[in-house]
Fold this protein.
Amino acid sequence: MGGKAILIVTIGFGFILSYLGLNISGMSTRAIENMSNYTTTTESHNLALTGANVGLAKVYLDTSWVGTISQDFSGGEGGGEEEGETGSGNLVGSFSVTMAKLGGGMSRLRSISSYPHSPSVTLHDTIEVFFTDKKENSFTLLAWMTNFEGNVFWITGDTVWGRVHSNGNLHVNGKPVFYEKVTTSKMMDPKPGKGANKAVFKDGYETGVATIDLPEDLAELIAAAAAGGRTYAGNIWVDLNPGTTANNDGYALVRSSSGGPIIDSVSIYGGGFNGALLSTGQVTVKGTMDGQISVASLSDVRIDNDVLLADRDFDASDDVIGLIAEDNVIVNNNTANQTNCVIDASIFARDGSFKVESHDTGPTRGNLYVQGSIIQDERGAVGTYAGSVLTHGYYKRYRYDQRLEDPNFRPPFYPGYWVKTYAITNWWESVRIPKYNY
């Protein structure tokens, strides 16, 4: 019995060891297969990533590019080939990357890889990069902007709500308050916290940022005034009127002299008026508007009294005014403007300044309230001071109209600026993974 038992045990161990050997061999084979699967899926995904990066490099060099780039990679000497060429070695993979316009201000870069996994299976990975290619932004996105600040200073008592930017140096003497971020393409003079610069930056500041270029002309506005708006020759005086208590029924009365006869009455929402009112000469404006209008001049716009929105609830109002000049936007030195001046408008002085007439003479005039935005080539003066105390002109009270943060809400045909690069809005990756063996 003992010999038979030993024989049975020996045979049993032999079967067990054989079974274990087969399992270990199978596990080794599956491990090799899984490693091979992992390698090929990684290679396929990396090919798609490579294609996406090649496409992004192309877009970086030329944002107007649309089309397809294909690249084959061979296992022979020399590696990848240029588009349209054939490699001398065995093909081990390829990618094809396409840039297309989708409409609605969107573009899509799509990279697809091809990688042989087996004689009967080819892996394809896809990477899609979505861009917003709406290049033009309204200048109303900025509460304050200048190309050049000149020798004008921000002083104690000045307050700005909204983003501030200058392509030049910002000068500070005292303790002005900035509620949103302040940026400059150059420097602060003096540096914040040094010398006379005691400015309060509620949302911080940054120097040395990219410039924002003003347009070379007012071509879009000129074209709009000629086709659906109003165009006049010479100097005109414009009185804005709110109309009745109904919404959006304001109108503008136009004269060729101060107090002279009316030469035109423009209904804001009547007769197909598109909102652009322009003169080749000087435009003097005052009044209250119920509706949306841009009052523009190919020389100067002069503010003769308060310019107001009929609905001054800046959270809900749909009224908006643009005061746009090729040269200057000027607050007149007259009786109406001696005690404060209120301007509910987006101000744009393309080749000039927003400034106050006779800012350095006479008594102080209180506060200059601007609820909107101010864009100008060279900063204009609105007052003078001794140390940080106002001696002539106005204190500044500039509050940004938060509705203007929406780039689609702005005065009719208000100028815009060009963004130099696209913005990536989404990056999507799809990976095909073969079935693993366990």
Notes: Helices lie at 2-61, 219-226.
